Amino acid sequence: MFKNSKKESSVDLLGKTNRIVEATIIRGDIEAVSDLRIDGELKGNLLVKGRVVVGPQAKVVGNIDCENADIEGTVEGIIRVNDLLTVKTNANIKGELIVGRLSVEPGGNIEVTCQMLGQSGKDSKSNGKQEKAEKTEKLEAVEKKG
C-alpha cells in the first residue's frame, strides 16, 4: 500500500527550514539537522546543525547551540554559535554568549558575558572536558530557574 520513499540524507536536508509558528509553546529540547526559525516560545534547549532564527515575537528560555544565528526576539540562556551571531535591533538577550563572530545592531539589548572563539569556532584555551562540565552546570542552573 505504501511504498518506501527514498530517505533524505542530512546533506539533502541542508537549506530546508523547520518553523515553530506564533502562539506555539514547546516544552522540551529540540535537535535539528536543518535550519530552524522560531516565532513561538521554546522552554528547552536547541541544538541545530545549521542556522537558527529567533523571530521578533519569539521567546527562548534555554540554551542554543548552532552554526549561525539571527536573534530578533528574547533569549535567556547560553548561546553558542560556531560562526556568526547577529543580534537584531529589537533583540533582548540575557545569559552568556560563546561565538565565533558577533554583530550587534543599534538597539539590540544584551546583558551577557561574551567569549569570542574567533573564525575557527573553537576555543584553543579551554579543555573540552572542563567546558562540557561548565556547560552542564549552567544548563542545570537555567533549568532550575525555568
From TrEMBL:
Residues 118-146 are annotated as: Disordered. Residues 122-146 have a biased composition (Basic and acidic residues). Signal peptide: none annotated. Coiled coil: none annotated. It comes from the Bacteria. Belongs to the bactofilin family. This is Polymer-forming cytoskeletal protein. The lineage of its organism: Bacteria, Pseudomonadati, Bacteroidota, Flavobacteriia, Flavobacteriales.
